[in-house]
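Retro notes
What went well: the complex prediction finally ran end to end.
Inputs used:
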Amino acid sequence: MYNLIGRQLNIADYALGSLSRNLWKNAGVVLVFGLVVFLVASFSLVTTGLKSSAEALLKSVPDITVQQMSAGRQAGLNSDAVEALGQIYGIREIRTRIWGYYFDPDNGANYTVIGDDRIIEKEGIPGIPITYLPDPESPLPADRAVLGQAVTGALDLGERRSFSLFRPDLSVKSFIRVGQFDRETAMVSDDLIVMGESAARDLFALDPGEVSDIIVSVANPLEVDTIAAKISSLLPGVRVVTKARIAKTYRAVFGWRSGFGLACLFGAAAAFFILAWDKASGLTPDQRRETAILKVLGWHTEDVITLRFWESIIICLAAFMIGYSAAWIHVLFFDAMLFRPVMLGWSVLKPTVSIIPSFAAGDLLIVASLSILPYLAATVIPAWRSATIRPESVI
Amino acid sequence: MIELNNVEKWYNRGTVNEVHALHRINLAIEPNQVVCVHGPSGSGKSTLLAILAGIIGPTSGSAVVNGRKLARLPDRFLTIHRRDTVGFIFQRFQLIPELSILDNVTLPLLPLGVKPAERNRRAMVLLDLLSIGHRARFPAAEISGGEQQRVAIARAMINDPPIIIADEPTAHLDRALSLEFLSIIEEFKRGGKTIVMASHDPLVADSAVVDRCLPMRDGRLEGPLQPI
């Protein structure tokens, strides 16, 4: 038994020495290969991170959202519609919501403002973790607000609790920060300012009774589509959006972006594997001589193939570890700066979005199969060709 | 026992580069003999040794070494023949220059799965026997020609083969080192080995350690042979 394991260990040890004899050349291959792994792994980590953020967001999305449309765009909705919806059997809860965008010219950023009393009253929302701050010792005459991480940074609040925004007539409205959204939901919460419904109405100077939309909870998830249809017929001219449709949109957006990115990476990977093939098939005279010597000394063809296989494995594993580690650092500490234009292209005016890479064995396997397996496949035939060199060539 | 019967060897047969390297060679070598195939360059000595070592096959005729018909052996068994039955010493020694002396000597043991400690122990016994043990960790590129030859001998002996084949072993050595080589060969003969050398060096051909000297010219063995 030792002979089988010992043979592998001996040949692997020799392969390591063989690689170190051409250190700079092989280090170059490892670096280029590592770069390919880095690109593929970074993209995979970003995609997975964004998808998990999107999944977290979907938990908080209401079963049905009702919006008023005017000339193809969303318009304010009268809260009287709530009474009409109350007639529909199967609805568990109906709430009005106020939301809109607030442009901050100093930072060139667009914040999303939501009026929701549940968050301000610390009831929270499923799927959106919030860290609440202790109440201030001397309460200020200001409305309470919960901020996204990037908003806090953009407003340069630091430890400060109070900040101000402008109403449409440019009068100042003061707020006090009472909580902060956690980083896990950064993709959807980074640009958020959540305040009480009345505070949001005041900030946007909305008429009494005007709301942005109505959100509906349904007791039986199987009846969502039926109830959505009833709402459409009851309130002509409104747009009724179900949770399933929002989920489908998110997945389509991320799926398209992932596919686009992977297509771009395929070109880089293909170029590398051509390089790998060229490197492995273009044996130097010294390598050919070494192979012939080994065969005269009693190495079988499969021993030489095993040697070349171990050389490839060592290069692959080194490149994979370097590339994957660099990808984690790139995504975790540098917010995937290389992929931001592709993955977050629509958020030019939004605050910086942080991406949290999430570990998934499946993703690891995909990256490994996109890098290690093609490299081994690209080198196996050249390895076999080099191993079949006749021993007489050294005589 | 080595037997060659009507062995012919052609290279590039049927082309303009055709070479008829061996003409109907008949030869028998008894165990524990030291045989020197003697002749000028291009006479076919290296081809003859390569056939005995199982490195190439004859075009026709049969080569039987220790009861094995080499011409009929599949590649896999020829490799085993090269590993277990013969130790081959190349004309230019063919060491791997970046490896240490010790690592060069132990190369044949790697695919056998021999543990590093055992490999090194066996190699050191041979290197000490050849008076080069003190340089075991030196890279092969940094030692003299005579030392390289001793390393090549140790590598050929590491599997303790019954037959040693040496191609022009003194071609790159001065007279003193050549005599030293012959004394090593004598030592191996006393140990029961069969040794077949190819050389155009009269020092080797005329040496007392050589039992038989076989003159060779233009692919033919001349003089007093032992035809089968």
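What we learned: Chain B is about 30% helix and 25% strand.
What to try next: split runs per interface for comparison.
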